């Protein structure tokens, strides 16, 4: 089961920055989101407050390994940026999941 799913009531109208999994408003040039994403998925780390923000490649799935690789590819290997909303806060496809809070 996807560890990002929970019974928390989410705000479907929240805005977010795609790729900003840890909610610090920084994506490019930082490993913070990659580490946060992988810790949450595989090491019992803090659950993301905005699962759609962790969908870095915008495919509608929270697949931690592929989303983490996408972030590394973009941030350090000149790969393509995440789909909107990126790099600014905005509304975006949430795959049916909203956000508790985003800081946007
Ligand atoms: Ca971040
Ligand atoms: Ca994804």
How would you describe this structure to a colleague?
There is one protein chain. With 104 residues, the protein is an all-alpha fold. It has one domain: Orthogonal Bundle (Type 1 dockerin domain), CATH 1.10.1330. It contains 3 helices and no strands. α1 packs antiparallel against α3. It is globular and about 30 Å long. The chain starts with 31 loop residues before the first helix and ends in a 27-residue tail after the last helix. About 5% of the residues have low confidence. The site of one calcium ion has 7 residues, from α1.
Summed up:
The protein is mostly helical. It has helices spanning 32-42, 51-54, 64-77.
Short key terms for the protein model shown above:
104 residues; mainly alpha; Type 1 dockerin domain; 28% helix; binds calcium ion
> Which consecutive residue ranges, at least 5 long each, have pLDDT under 50?
5-9
Number of domains: 1
Using DSSP, what is the number of strands? 0
- Rg for CA atoms: 12 Å
Count of helix runs: 3
Mean pLDDT across the residues is 85
| Terminal residue distance | 28 Å
Task: Assign a percent range to the helix content.
Answer: 25-40%
């Amino acid at each position: 089961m996807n560890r990002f799913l929970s019974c928390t009531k989410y705000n479907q109208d929240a805005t977010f920055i795609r790729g900003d999994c840890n909610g610090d408003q920084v994506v490019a040039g930082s490993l913070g989101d990659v580490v946060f994403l992988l810790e949450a998925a595989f090491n019992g780390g803090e659950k993301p407050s905005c699962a759609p923000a962790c969908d870095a490649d915008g495919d509608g799935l929270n697949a931690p390994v592929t989303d983490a690789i996408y972030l590394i590819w973009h941030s350090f290997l000149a790969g393509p940026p995440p789909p909107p909303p990126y790099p600014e806060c905005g509304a975006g496809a949430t795959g049916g999941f909203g956000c508790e809070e985003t800081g946007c």
